[in-house]
């Protein structure tokens, strides 16, 4: 009798939890919920960490680290027309099965960013590459290319820009088509910028120290001719306080202007770490701050924090909100 009671209870609990899971999997999303589980078109949890977005011919593409529990499994890409609903496009850059390759299974590919080069008509991906079996020692920039935005990307090479270590990084294409890598160098004590060659495949010698504040996770955007750069401190996977720098030129000088985060857990970036800032197409001065809420016990299960950037006295502010829509911007 008692056993029968237990069976009834467990069947009830199971159906109950399946029902809750189903409720959590909306087919069509109409808002952003920072920190919530985010599903793709196949009802799989989106696996695109440390990522970056590219807007190309009317579609947004989200590139990010495909993670296992701890393994780095290559770079995933998703596509979306509306930024809320994402279609899984597949593995844009796969790890190599050749054990002698620089991108063999046991190395790391982190913080992938993709830009389009109109001269060569190629999509160019840069990422933080760590060589197999060396932990975070190699500190190199990796480059891969494709004729198609969703890939597959072919691995080209890796290097240290002008001999500098290159760990956390982002890419930025300015209005004149010049592209730059902003990267953490000298064991993350320095944040540097280097201009890319015209084909976006290599670093030029135009390479400058931005500041030596032990910062990483750079995310940059431009508004009204000013550049804004959000970074994190260096505490591994643990969240810490963000900081904002502003400059009239990408090469500096960069002025520190404090922490732009506001709301609960603002002092630790809402338990997250910056990765990218995406302008919203068709809206004026509309930028989305994108961060990772890392789960080092199961990296693929890390969450995403997407929040709107507002401006108070021309300074960017990232105010926490549990849910929001693109209607935040009226224009
Ligand atoms: C912080 C970096 O921002 C992440 O991309 C990752 O490299 C972790 N450190 C590893 O601890």
From TrEMBL:
Q: Which InterPro entries match?
A: Glyco_hydro_43 (IPR006710), Glyco_hydro_beta-prop_sf (IPR023296)
Signal peptide annotation: 1-22
Annotated GO MF terms = hydrolase activity
The record's listing under CDD domains reads: GH43_CtGH43-like (cd18825)
Keywords in alphabetical order, please: Glycosidase, Hydrolase, Signal
Entry's PANTHER family? GLYCOSYL HYDROLASE 43 FAMILY MEMBER, GLYCOSYL HYDROLASE FAMILY PROTEIN 43
What is stated as this protein's family in its record? Answer: Belongs to the glycosyl hydrolase 43 family.
Name of the protein described by the UniProt record: Glycoside hydrolase family 43 protein
